[in-house]
Amino acid sequence: MRVALPIAAALLLAPCAFGPAPAHGKDGPVRAPEPDLGFYVQRIAPWLEATCAPCHRGQGAGSFVLAPVGDREKDTTARRARDLQGLRRLLDPEAPWDSRLLRKVLPEDRGGLPHAGGARLSPDDAIHDDLLDFVSGATLRNLPPEPEPGKDRRVRAGDAVELDGSLSFDRDDDPVRHRWELFARPPGSRAAIVDPDAARTKITPDVAGTYVVRLRVFDGKAWSPAKPVVLECLELAGPVAPDPLAPSGLAALEPAALSRVRALYGDVLGRPPTPPESVAAAAQPLPALAASLLASLEAGRAWVEDEAFRLGLVGDAQPSSEAVAALPIRIASGDTSPADAEAALVRDPAFLRAFPEGAALASAVERLLLGRPGTAAERATWATEAGARAVLATPEFRVAALRRHVARYLAPEAAAAFPGDRAGESVLALARGIVGSPAWAGGGDARRRAGDLAFLRGLFADLLGRRASGVELSALARAAAVLPGSAAGRAAVVDVLLDSGEVLLPLVVEIRDPDAWIADRFLRTLGRAPSPEEAVAYRTVLLDPAGGPHVVVRALCSSDEYASR
Questions:
Q1: Which residues span the domain enclosing 425?
Q2: Are strands 227-233 and 153-155 parallel, antiparallel or unpaired?
């Protein structure tokens, strides 16, 4: 059985699916060859006709139609050549494992797509290997080589990372040559592959974010499809304390000042400040601190993450366009309005994957773009891609996007009454005019409550001292929302992080002053001191043989109060 890239792994690359066009060399374009007619006629067509012809032969068979068989037609090869031309829309030689031809005939629980005809084969079947070979450009005389770029991994900025493709091979035993390409890197990165033509080479990630490196191999006859390896360069949430087990220093701050700083970080970055950030920020004038945070790349990324999650563009439907990749920088630089930023996400191909044309797309326009039910005529228009995209140019959508943006910082009533004639202002300018103003300060707890993404960003900052990667946010946000309104999902996520090995907690015997340690943990996680009753209860749990620091932190981070902040 050929080992294909798992469907889930292929789809997780969606946020980074942009890069250079295939290079050219002395052996021709560095890209996978087109499917071969001879291989199709002899190896694929007999199975396809026996399996799919009852539904797909002739007219009225959906988007995939096999050519009808004429009464006097004897040239089978000519007919199959016509079938191959119609089949090409279902093939992706650059990512054979993700071709619709393969996924339509697989069970959905094995990575398949919905199919009226049901599942027709398993990934373990020999014909599945033939289909992969066919889409990859196999001929009757040559099978494509197999690139092996290694496993996905987490890395640190500044560390040289070895890329090892030495396990790549050719099934015809031909010697292979290698070609690495940096397919995607975070905004601002200048990282490069040291020697793209070596079997083993290196790259040094220089900024936090996702790097996608792809490997192709050449057997002297054809290049393989590009197989990716993902490098997640972890990003610190902010400056960390020299000793994470020592007191945080938050007890010396005025409670009101700490509360303002935490509210500002929560609204702008979607996470709490680290203790050193809180100490430094408490001494700054609020307008200056707000201006600095709002113009940061992290603020732009948090905005895009929040909107993508609100639009349902997570998991298998993560956005992949260059326009979306550039959004964090455009937001931080004041170069886009709320409506234009939302429109970039809606125009991404992922939106139509999440909401196919028809009732699903019309409902998405109602719920997610305009916030109102449509008439029957409007819904009929919105059910098409062209009709849904036309909404993005309407004043109604621009005002709705404006008010969704300001609702990040204002109470719901104030956001609903925000002047619609300001819809053309940038995300940055609007936020600067609100954050730190009396309207923002007066919003208090009436401002938008933290959602699952803010909860997760808070956990990563408070427990791990770093930002979550896009994949971590997507996967854990779905886990946290398994039981809406319940703390069970949040508690499960807290347990995952506490058991990750990244969280540094002391042993009970290392805590010299239990009361001070508990008070410091309250300040770190909730931004306040414990009440006398809480102090007694948490001290009992801390010193109980069945309790300890792990149980104290779990209780604080799983609480409704933590999730709401």
A1: 295-435
A2: parallel
